[in-house]
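Hi support team,

I submitted a single chain yesterday and got back a structure, but I'm not sure I'm reading the token output correctly. Could someone confirm the output below corresponds to the sequence I sent? I've pasted both exactly as they appear in my results page.

Thanks,
R.
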Amino acid sequence: MYTLGDMAKELNRSPVYLHGLQDRFGLPVFKGKGYSDAYLAFLRMVVMLRALNVSEDALRRLWEIEKKLLVLLHVDSTGSATWFLDACGQTGRYARRLLLTNVDMGIRLPSKAVQLGLDFSAQLPELFEGREMGEDALRVFSQCMKVHTQIQTTMRCEAPLLRAALHCVRKRGGG
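Hi R., thanks for writing in. Yes, this is the structure output for that exact sequence:
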């Protein structure tokens, strides 16, 4: 478990910067050593993607879409205050995981399919189907993959410049 200061030191960012991310991404704020490894992994992913010149607006948009998709698939049934972060930091099967929440979707991404039968909860059925209420998991998944693909394109374009910068740092004795 971590404090906000521990995470700031780990990510080489100020606590004020991390607090801003918490606010803008709507993350829960804890006192003392209340932050899990998964919470830190999420913040690390955001910081890394920002280093690759992915806009914070794009990240927040993807974050909201991924959470909406997970609600439609009932992944939020764990009762955890950080249910949307709990998969962060897990490793393996990266091609099947959503970018920010890191949830394993069971299919290679991007894909045109989602396992609609997935239901991670044992809740009572709703009075109306999600589709009748205007929500469609496939539509939300499609939005998610569109933003995900845009972010991946940005990452691919920035990666060569970042590699060149790291080479320059090593050559000049900085790392």
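A quick pointer for reading it: Residues 4-171 form one domain. Let us know if anything else looks off.

Best,
Support desk
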